[in-house]
Amino acid sequence: MAERPTEQRDESGPAESDGGASSAARARTDALRLALVSSAGARGQAEILASSLQQAVAGLCGVGGLVHLTGRARQGLKLAATDLPSDLTEQWDSIDVASDSAPARAVRENRVAWSPPVSPTSADSGCEDLGVLAAPISLDGAPIGAVSVLLDDLPAADRQQFLTALADLTGDGLRETGVPADAVTRPSDRTDGGRKAAQVAAVHEHRVAKLNAALVRALSTSDVVGAIRRHVLPLFEAGGVLVIDDTGPVPRLVGHIGYSQVFLQSVSPRAPAVPADAAAAGDAVRPPFLSTLDDLALCSDVELAAFTDFIAVHTPRFYSSLMEVENEWPAMRSLIRRSGKKSWAVLPLAVGVHRVGCCVIGWTEAYEFTESDRSLLTELAGFIAQALGNARLYEEARNRAQRLQQELLPGTLPDLGPLRAAGRYHASAGQEVGGDWYDAVPLPSGRVLAIVGDVTGHGLEQAITMGIIRHAALAIAALDLPVEELMAHLNDVVGRLSSPADDPAISAVCLAAVLDPADGTCSLVSAGHPGPILIRPGRDPELVPIPAGRPLGDAATPPAVTKIPLAEDAVLILYTDGLWSGHAPDTAALTSAIASYTEPIGFPVADGQRGAWLDGLCDAITTVCTRDPGQEKDAALLAVYAARVPSDRIAAWDLVWAPESASQARSLTADQLATWRLDDCVDAAVLIVSELFGNTVRHAIGLGGDVAAEDAGVIRLRLLHLGDSLVLEVYDGSEATPRVRHPGFEDEFGRGLQLVAMSADRWGARYAEGGKCIWATLETRTAEETRTSLAFH
Hints:
This protein is an alpha+beta fold. It has 20 helices and 26 strands.
């Protein structure tokens, strides 16, 4: 007997593991089953088909079986035998050989065929959530029919081969007896009716098992409602359901199926406003679960109050007809008739003594509830209640996790002056929080710190660690230290977080970049992280090579700094490993996604378009690089659009380190502010520059100065006009940090920095190449803006 090809089984799930003894036992059982089918051929057509069905279903642990025959002419497949009741198999009576069903494909392709749990049966047949495995029945090598088994999942290859062997023996038996006519052999038709009841019970039991499995997997209220739709409604041929959640402060409608929009609006969970005087006077207040819709005049207060009582029952209630409902709830007559349902089952949902909600199932036709129906519905209500309560707890935990992630990540990025930035975070599959993060921090003089990091793993612990590191980075950035020192301090933070008892120890990487739009440079440092991707107009995206350094917490020395030029309209992409291709630092997919976005649309010309352009770029990258629904890593992305401060908004002079340079600095400052039409800032700016120059001459040396060689060096004065702010910078050759003193009443010196602090909106100092920079910022308005403001007031 030639072995036909089998359907490929998805091996991602739990694999069957049989020992040698169990495999041998199965082989003996299979041989016995095949022998019984072979011996049935001597007893006639009906016995052949009945025996084939029985052994096929038993051998594959199926729910039921079917045999279709087409005859040698292959005009169409007719149902020749089944062990299922006729009301469950009406759609299987005749099958087009050209259709995509498993029996038709088995005959057409002369091989075993599988149809997943979406079959041509009707929605109320009881079999629509079962797959079908079919093997061809052949005469003289030509398929004349198929034997099929209804199953939950595609079985293993050895079960498919067993069904193929059984179908071949069935064909051998039919060769001796001839192909049967159109009469269908149904074991349930040849018994006293008990077989049919048993089969119906088996289908019901299967549905209940499937419902229970679906409810166990449900992680949200919508999952619970979906399980009811797929398993409960078909089981009872019901036409609709309302699911109400009582675990919140007020009941809420969490799911509905089979009801008109008008009816749902009548019972929607919108609470009407209640005038304070009405509440104080004790007037009747509508239940908070229901809305009034006074404009539609759909429901009266009495009807809505009655419906609230109707769903607030503590024991299951069953109504087989409209008359029963109206007799018990006369105030609901109009509302119930608008629902379109004629029978109802009102099932309270409770876990222990705690009520979690209510499930109202409706039928479009009158439905007589048997004792079995009542018992089964009551039992199912317990399953649904447990699932709804668990789903509510899971949703609350997920909401808290999402809120935590939102609080730990930067949210809306701050104003970055001439630069623009956009960021994205994507959680890994099955997780709401993780250890990846990003941020963009404005620094003095228009500079920006762009930073991304990754704490290995995903979950609450990693999210907490990530939050500590990110906020530590924000605090350190406020000190305006060189970027390599910032990373060194973060290394110390992670080192303190990792105690010797930690197993595994905290593993974190980080990439930081300081972009300076005034001189068009970017300083990069990495702690175990690959370099960023640089995008420039007219060129392919490229990975910036930088020394990776050691991960945070594991570095003994500060990381190396890489300084690169940033041209106008360049874009810097910082990312974490969730956007890599695979486990190695392979950025092929990332650069491809970037190129696919930038090539068709180019770069934005106007500054006002850059924000939307960056958002589109981030969306394009995350769509391509996080499309795998089973992605195991979370991902963070930060894109920064680099711009240059226009040259006419920058003024710089190198002045001799000498007391008389203060006068020259004041004059240069006043003239430049007049050119920029910042007349309102002149007095404050001149005072600040004068005090900073005096402080430098008294307490520092000039840039490039050498005291031993009697070379005083120079003092550099730089003015930056950045949008609505003016930055005043004084550079000297000393690394001594200035501090505000508190002189006594008679002290001659010590008041200069106090005057600077009072005159400037912000001021500070940072280390610079060859010394330090003392800076001060003034918020500005042009003379025209000032006059406009005065005229308006």
